[in-house]
Write a structure and sequence with these properties.
binds magnesium ion; globular; 8-stranded parallel beta barrel; single chain; phosphoenolpyruvate--protein phosphotransferase; binds phosphoenolpyruvate; alpha/beta
């Protein structure tokens, strides 16, 4: 199989019925970057910036952050990189950030909530991103956006910092795209204006599933109980796909399940055109997509949903076996 994946490395992920899916990789450390070449990923769909913060005992200086972002962009050699702003709290605790004890950390003070309440940290990171980009295209996204207003507030900070850099005579990105992670069900019901204005939306399936099913992603007792191929979850993904399509907004999926071939096929069949996954999954997912007709997969999903199936796993597994995917 490894040889097959290597032979596909420079080929696009196009299904038998001609649908092109962009396969990206998730990263968070400089050491992940060589995988961009070797995996055949088309870019970094999720760069987890918090890792640099987690491995240290103090906030990295602006110059250190900027140096890392610059090296990441150098290593990507023009392929797109989506930098996710600091996603801390819950399972990712910074020893040097004072925080109260929380009864439910997953539902607590985390991600963009911290960034909006302690704006200096986010501003410093944005300045670092702008300096690291040094005039190159820049993509930024915010984690755990639950309300449109949170996205707009964070986006305004980015736009203000761009103006500050410009006023200081420093280079600003040749292209700037600012997106939101959809990780709470509430954001799927945000006003149309949010979907129109966001430059892109990325489903963080790990968190979205946790909140959709009210099942802690860290808790072994419930973690595996609910499935990405659950009918209710796929109906929800369908709603998000439709809202993005109506607004003309690019949608990607960057939770772990985007890297599992059957789940990836289901997501692509539902209309998600960009999947971001760990590098080792790019080959297996690409080979599955190239062997499949997504319109067939979609028909299987629609028929099973219409019959009231609780999960799509059986129907899709049967279809994949018969279709030789
Ligand atoms: C997610 O929640 O799906 C995600 C991609 O982010 P993380 O796993 O870092 O929370
Ligand atoms: Mg998440």
């Amino acid at each position: 199989a490894q040889e097959l994946y290597e032979s596909l490395r420079d080929k696009p992920a196009v299904s038998l019925d001609g649908r092109r899916i962009a396969l990206m990789m998730n990263a968070g450390l400089m050491t992940d970057l060589p995988s961009l070449e070797s995996s055949g990923a088309e870019g970094v769909g999720l760069y987890r910036t918090e890792l640099q913060f987690l491995i240290r005992s103090t906030v990295p200086r602006r110059s250190e952050q900027a140096a890392l972002y610059s090296r990441v962009l150098d290593a990507a050699r023009g392929k797109p990189v989506v930098f996710r702003t600091l996603d801390i709290g819950s399972d990712k605790v910074l020893p040097y950030l004072q925080r109260p004890e929380e009864p439910n950390p997953a539902l607590g003070w985390r991600a963009i909530r911290i960034s909006l309440d302690r704006p200096m940290i986010l501003r410093m990171q944005i300045q670092s991103l702008l300096r690291g980009a040094r005039g190159r295209p820049l993509r930024v996204m915010f984690p755990l956006v639950a309300q449109a207003a949170e996205y707009f507030a964070a986006r305004d900070m980015v736009l203000e910092e761009v103006e500050n850099e410009r006023a200081r005579g420093r280079p600003v990105p040749s292209e700037l795209r600012i997106g939101a992670m959809l990780e709470t069900p509430s954001l799927a019901f945000a006003p149309d204006a949010f979907f129109r204005e966001a430059d892109f939306i990325s489903i963080g399936g790990n968190d979205l599933k946790q909140f959709f099913f009210a099942a802690d992603r860290e808790n072994e007792l419930v973690r595996r109980r609910y499935d990405t191929l659950d009918a209710a979850y796929l109906r929800f993904v369908d709603l998000i796909v439709r809202r993005c399509a109506e607004a003309g907004t690019e949608l990607s999926y960057c939770g772990e399940d985007a890297g599992r071939p059957l789940e990836a096929l289901a997501l692509a069949a539902m209309g998600v055109r960009v999947l971001s996954m760990r590098p080792a999954s790019v080959g297996p997912v690409k080979s599955a997509i190239r062997a499949a007709r997504l319109d067939e997969a979609r028909a299987v999903i629609d028929a099973a949903l219409a019959e009231g199936a609780a999960t799509l796993r059986e129907a899709l597994t049967r279809w994949a076996a018969e279709a030789g995917v």
